[in-house]
């Protein structure tokens, strides 16, 4: 269920974030897949991946006071929270929101493109860093300095569109020793790569990665707010 509208009161810009939606659903991917989760979707993204499924979050949105965001999250009564976008780190006050969510006792994850610096993100947050493949058309935006910041609490995700993307991701695994740093997730791009084909490649190569499909898409297709 999408959030109610934010309270119509004047708040200092320093305490606000622009949100596209807040909603309760099942986490569809990463290491908390299947858990009831509140999603806080921030508006805006500097990337334009060719397979993007949340382009509706590029523009628009409403300004929310950070304390009102926390109140809306609390209203849903679950312990898992995912801050996503768009690209949430494109709004600098996202760092403050993540810290406050952790302070409130939530299990917090951050879905980020990996194009922006993750070093200031609270270490209690599980940072899910989406490294962009060649066929995403945004590979040049990868900030590889982020890799050194990864801990076992974090995750790296590759959305793969082709065999070429798969081979590139395999090289990244070895070059940066990603499986030794954190969990690595391989996902098929919904319209471009057969899930079965990707699964067969992973098994044949015995890769130390987790195959995943987006549970929310299997259940609700691309319906916003689910």
Helix content: 10-25%
Strand and helix order? EEEHEHEEEHHEHEH
What's the Cα radius of gyration? 17 Å
Strand order of the largest sheet: 3-1-2-4-5-6-7-8-9
* Low-pLDDT ranges: none
- The CATH superfamily appears as Aldolase class I
User: First CA to last CA: what distance?
Assistant: 8 Å
In total, how many beta strands?
9
On the 0-100 scale, what is the average pLDDT? 93
- The total tally of domains equals 1
Give the overall form: globular
* CATH topology type: TIM Barrel
The CATH class is Alpha Beta
**How would you describe the oligomerization state of the chains in this entry?**
single chain
Number of continuous helical runs: 6
Q: Characterize the main sheet.
A: 9 strands, mixed
Q: Based on helices, strands and strand pairing, what is the structural class?
A: alpha/beta
Binding site for S-adenosyl-L-methionine: 51-53, 86
Pathway: Purine metabolism; 7-cyano-7-deazaguanine biosynthesis
Binding site for [4Fe-4S] cluster: 45, 49, 52
Keywords: 4Fe-4S, Iron, Iron-sulfur, Lyase, Magnesium, Metal-binding, Queuosine biosynthesis, S-adenosyl-L-methionine
């Amino acid at each position: 269920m999408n959030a109610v509208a934010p309270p119509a009161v004047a708040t200092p810009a320093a305490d606000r974030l622009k949100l596209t939606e807040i909603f309760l659903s099942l986490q569809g991917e990463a290491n908390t897949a299947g858990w009831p989760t509140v999603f806080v979707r921030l508006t805006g993204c500097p990337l334009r991946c060719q397979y993007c499924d949340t382009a509706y979050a590029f523009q628009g949105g409403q300004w929310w006071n950070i304390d009102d965001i926390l109140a809306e999250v609390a209203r849903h009564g679950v312990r898992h929270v995912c801050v996503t976008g768009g690209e949430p780190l494109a709004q600098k006050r996202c760092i403050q929101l993540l810290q406050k969510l952790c302070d409130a006792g939530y299990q917090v994850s951050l879905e980020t493109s990996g194009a922006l610096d993750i070093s200031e993100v609270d270490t209690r947050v599980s940072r899910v860093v989406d490294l962009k493949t060649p066929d995403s058309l945004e590979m040049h935006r990868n900030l590889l300095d982020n890799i050194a910041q990864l801990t076992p609490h974090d995750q790296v995700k590759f959305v793969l569109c082709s065999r070429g993307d798969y081979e590139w991701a395999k090289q990244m695994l070895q070059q940066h020793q990603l499986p030794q740093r954190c969990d690595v997730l391989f996902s098929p791009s919904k319209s471009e790569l057969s899930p079965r084909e990707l699964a067969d490649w992973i098994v044949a190569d015995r890769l130390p990665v987790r195959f995943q499909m987006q549970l929310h898409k299997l259940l609700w297709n691309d319906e916003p707010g689910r």
